[in-house]
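Note to self: keep these together.
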Amino acid sequence: MIPNTISKRVLTMGVDYHNPKGGIAQVLYAYSQIFETFRFIPTTNSKNFFSRQMTGIIAALKLLSLLLRKEIKIVHIHCASGKSFYRKSLYIFICQFFNVKILCHMHSGHFVRFIHKCPNFIRKTLLRCDSIIVLGHSWKNFYQNIGCQHIDIIDNIILPPQKIGEKKDDGLMHLIFLGSLTQPKGIYDLLQALGEYKSYLLGKIKLHIGGLGDLQTFQQEIDRLKIHEMVEYHGFVSDEAKNRLFTIGDIYILPSYFEGMPISILEAMSYGMPIIASRTGGIPEIVIPGKTGQLITAGHIEEIAESILWFLDHPEEKKEMAHIAQENSQKYLPQNIEKELTELYSRYL
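Structure:
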């Protein structure tokens, strides 16, 4: 636990983590478990438009109240790109006015594109912060290149695996994909790979998909490719359902175009799954080719299919990778992230 001598002086701000949906909410929920006192203000939620706007306004008022009472020394703001960043820029300005330490924790893989939308405003906002917290060395280089000088690396956090059930003994290799049903997540590239290599994969694999999106387009693509026998759609996946999928899974696959450091990959590794993922964001720092999985180029159908086929043809190597992946995931468990955060906060108090 991060003790009260530190935790009572730290305020965390970000998306409402109760009934968490999305990577940042999962991180915040895990954080709430390692602070002796977790002082938190939600800045948005997953409800309707009016509720989200009111949550943002109330967050600003609560922040002002705490700062006026001089109870807080550090404000740790968890931020994505787009509207999230513009909302957080207001809180950053308020914190600077009250001369408290501002730690801006950047989670979004889309920031590479977002920076070009309003570069001067974004840079000035980031430079108001005492530290930009990033998810790996590649992101540290990115933020250094846009002018940020004070950058800290804090690994993403995952909770210990909670296995439910047993692996299936049906002779199939079970692949797991969790994410939105959108092109940037690479789901349609993955479906295309299954369709083009159907003659090699049919009867050998089952792809389990969890996530929300345009279900009509998604189903039409499955119909067009005639891959119904290889695909099972699970809809929105609760924590319990996710644990079940991770328990039966053999390979986790995420051929997305933009990522920070995906929580889902770290969780899959903790369940002993090798990874197939694209070379984007912080992924190459956690997926080591030949050790914990295979890296592919986003948008390259052939590479996706060949990686799946490689695992089918190399069952012993797959077992060894599963073991290494599970070992490597230990550094992201709460007790290790707690140490990183304690050291970080101590430097800024």
